[in-house]
Amino acid sequence: MSVEETGRTTVTRADHRTDVVPLTARDGTRLTLVHVRGPREPWRGPVLLVHGSGVRAELFRPPLPRTLVDVLLEDGWDVWMLNWRASIDLAPSPWTLDDAAVFDHPAAVEHVLAATGAPTLKAVVHCQGSTSFTMAAVAGLLPAVDTVVSNAVSLHPVIPFWSRQKIRYLAPPIARFTPHLDPSWGYRSDGAFSKVVRRAVALTHPECDNLVCRMVSFTYGSGFPALWSHRNLDAATHDWVSGEFAEVPLTFFAQMGRSVAAGHLVAAREHPELPADLVAGPPRTDARFAFLAGADNRCFLPESQVRTHAFFAAHRPGAGDTLHVLPGYGHLDVFFGRRAWRDTYPIILEELHR
Predict the structure, then answer these.
(1) Where does the AB hydrolase-1 domain start and stop, copy by copy (predicted)?
(2) pLDDT in tens for each of the 354 residues of the chain?
């Protein structure tokens, strides 16, 4: 009798068997893959989890009773989490989305397939992990990926009015003083400029007592807070975010500013592997995409995913690409909201099964 027939063992963080695997990107950059296994061997294929900017793979393992990783392991998936060049667990660098698309994601997919012997894999990708992964997919660089669950933003970044003002008028002068922004300035100083930013955020973001939470809102969006709703986070998770955000380079904000102005992602550097215009033609991928958008997202508006879904649907009607606008959710609480196990994880599982 199969595992599916006998029922699944409940998995918690205590059951995780974790291996951190060194990975070299195609340009020589040192990355890591975090391979997580549960109490039973997986009976489904591999799934790759890809975090956003200025965080790390542990984003998917918050201090919740049931995390997305737990649910995936219970459901039989072979879970791999990528620390790509935007990870705070790696040496800081002036990365761009196209660097990750060309060098990081193809190397990660290749490694996981070689390690597991699987012919294909599925991916759950978030924010700038999603934009860079989608960039790689539509350029034809990820032919062995058959399903992508994308959260928040992919090809068409649409941001709130105040975010547009910050990225257009505030980011360039900030770049004269620092090569990066860092929400961890909320509890540690990195020179005089970091103290100025911390003070400014303390004065303009009074929404909670966690200064890192407030720094995150200043850095990434427009809202109080911007990346989640406080009502969706339990106390342990709200405390935990203090250690999960750090340096993000101004090169990213410059690229995102140009992309927002263009209405779609644009490359920051010359990469012959990427088309000159990512949205000029049909996506060069057979992967089915499921686009998730928190209805209350104040980092990237839901319209971001609506536009990309429309782009895919126009170029390949009938391919099965889907769109889910999630009421009551924002940007990151899709993954670490206190009730995400009930509200959003089932949608992700359903899309991985389709």
Answers:
(1) 46-157
(2) 233 433 567 999 999 999 999 999 999 999 999 999 999 999 999 999 999 999 999 999 999 999 999 999 999 999 999 999 999 999 999 999 999 999 999 999 999 999 999 999 999 999 999 999 999 999 999 999 999 999 999 999 999 999 999 999 999 999 999 999 999 999 999 999 999 999 999 999 999 999 999 999 999 999 999 999 999 999 999 999 999 999 999 999 999 999 999 999 999 999 999 999 999 999 999 999 999 999 999 999 999 999 999 999 999 999 999 999 999 999 999 999 999 999 999 999 999 999
Task: State whether 52 and 193 are in the same domain.
Answer: no
Structural domain span for residue 281: 3-160+268-353
Coil, strand, or helix at residue 141? coil
Cα angle: 248, vertex 151, 233; to 5 degrees? 80
Secondary structure string (H, E, C) spanning 59-96: HHCCCCCCCHHHHHHHCCCEEEEEECCCCCCCCCCCCC
Same domain, yes or no: 98 and 175: no
Cβ-Cβ contacts under 8 Å for 183 (sequence gap 6 or more):
54, 212, 215, 216, 219, 245, 246
